[in-house]
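User: I've been trying to design a sequence by hand for this structure and keep getting stuck. Would you show me what you'd pick, starting by listing the structure so we're on the same page?

Assistant: Good idea, let's start from the same input. This is the structure you sent:
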């Protein structure tokens, strides 16, 4: 996706108040005045303002009362801030356990992931999509009888159960959301994902739902660690891309994230640790709380 298309997608998510905040960034930089209402029709200028370091300061960097920013704008400027910080970072901490970090010298790979504006947009949209979580019931045939089952977008096992119940045409959407929840849990709540999200029985169910070859199932068997989730998340995203009826620019990005799932996860770890929870205004509660 080129910058015009990416800026257009941002414009579709931002509120009028968000645009006013971004217009104020241009004024603070002593540049030419920007009419907030004109930003929707100038996607390239809008993207340029989101990338301005002043956008993060305007939304999250100042003391005092919170500004009237939408969750999407908070996530968008946080991802942009991560791109700016990682541009000069030598290493990035990796979680090895609760409150435990070790430095990994993989910052160049994270910089490369964030170099594409469309991938930065992908992460902002992903985070914003989980501010409201869909759940509900569906009917499925179990042992020859129709039964009612529940699903939640934050429960990968129950969400995977939808694959057996929805028409074939709807499966790409389920696979896409499975990839999303896997990236979200490992990116924002990695300790929970590896310690509490799954027991061995449900882990085996997910491996079967992913239709992995037996050799790969054996390799990933055992307590579900980060490698388990990364492998499944990439597989879900590839299935969403490959089974879709027609290729699109957005599906191209989904495929890129599938190929770089670990980098996407590590970027979200950085965003979460640096900007979301330490800011004193966490946007998510711990799953299950």
């Amino acid at each position: 996706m080129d910058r015009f298309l990416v800026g257009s997608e941002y414009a579709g998510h931002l509120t009028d108040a968000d645009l006013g905040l971004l217009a104020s960034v241009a004024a603070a930089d002593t540049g030419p005045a920007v009419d907030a209402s004109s930003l929707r029709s100038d996607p390239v200028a809008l993207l340029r303002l989101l990338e301005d370091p002043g956008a993060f300061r305007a939304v999250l960097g100042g003391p005092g009362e919170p500004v009237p920013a939408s969750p999407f704008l908070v996530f968008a400027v946080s991802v942009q801030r991560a791109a700016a910080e990682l541009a000069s970072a030598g290493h990035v901490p990796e979680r090895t356990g609760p409150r435990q970090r070790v430095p990994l010298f993989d910052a160049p790979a994270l910089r490369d992931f964030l170099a594409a504006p469309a991938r930065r947009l992908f992460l902002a949209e992903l985070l914003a999509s989980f501010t409201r979580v869909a759940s509900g019931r569906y009917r499925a045939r179990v042992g020859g009888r129709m039964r009612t089952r529940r699903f939640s977008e934050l429960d990968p096992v129950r969400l995977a159960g939808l694959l057996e119940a929805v028409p074939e045409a709807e499966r790409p959407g389920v696979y896409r959301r499975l990839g999303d929840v896997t990236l979200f849990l490992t990116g924002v709540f990695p300790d929970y994902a590896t310690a509490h999200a799954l027991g061995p029985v449900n882990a085996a169910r997910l491996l079967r739902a992913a239709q992995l070859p037996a050799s790969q199932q054996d390799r990933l068997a055992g307590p579900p660690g980060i490698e388990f989730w990364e492998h499944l998340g990439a597989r879900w995203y590839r299935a969403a891309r490959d089974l879709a009826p027609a290729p699109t620019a957005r599906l191209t990005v989904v495929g890129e994230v599938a190929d770089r799932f670990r980098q996407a996860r590590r970027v979200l770890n950085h965003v979460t640790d640096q900007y979301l929870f330490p800011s004193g205004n966490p946007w998510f509660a711990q799953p299950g709380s």
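That's my pick for every position. To get oriented when you compare it with your attempt: Residues 279-283 have pLDDT under 50 and may be disordered. DSSP finds 15 helices and four strands in the chain.
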